[in-house]
Design brief:
about 250 residues; ornithine cyclodeaminase, domain 1; seven-stranded mixed beta sheet; 6 helices; about 30% strand
Length: about 250
Amino acid sequence: MSLRLLRAPEVARGCAMTEAIEAVALGFRALSEGRAHAPARVGVPLAGTGVSLAMPCSIDGWAYASVKVVNVAPGNVAAGLPLIHAAVVLTDARTGRTLAVLDGTSVTALRTGASGGVAVRALARPDASVLALYGAPIPGLESMEISLLYTGESGLPFSYVYRGDYNGDGYPGQGPAFDRNNDLMYVPLEPFEVPSGFGTSARLKAALETDACLREFRGSIMLRNHCRAPWQNRLGLRAGHPTRICPEIPCQ
């Protein structure tokens, strides 16, 4: 009987976040429909104040079942060891044969992130462009706080126009600063349609081939505000952890 051992790097490589989100969504659906069996975790004491927790789960009709074992040993912190050790045991739901043992900490982290992804996908507005995450996700560092803010904004619409009142219509009649920069541009089908030198013709040829908006309107007059500036993406990360600077005496 072969038994696979998947450490944290193998778990990360073997399951992308998009796949984890889909898997967690299926699990949530099975739980709400009464097809998932996930009883309350069972715990037994370990040495000192430690505890070992077992969390089994199976889903009707699925080929696999699992048990996550989490061992919490508060004394590890002083010894420079992780507070929590965890493992997930994957079994064949039909035969009960053990198939694999996975690093439980990485699976838990993947599941936690995917749960947030499922919630965002189900509850966020279709036009939402801001995502913020806040919490204390690091086992053993419950006072460590991490916040993540992502803002995505679609680019503003714009048009390519001629410089000057090209058609002489005086529109929109709000003065020279406005009237001479609003006539939509005809996009040439080929660079040679525009009388110009070699350098200008080469730059125009490159623009017609690389600019998606110009490429779409080659040989025609473009539509107003049909082009879009690039998306603007901003990501902010903040991590905070309180530190006692006077451990021997009460801080004033």
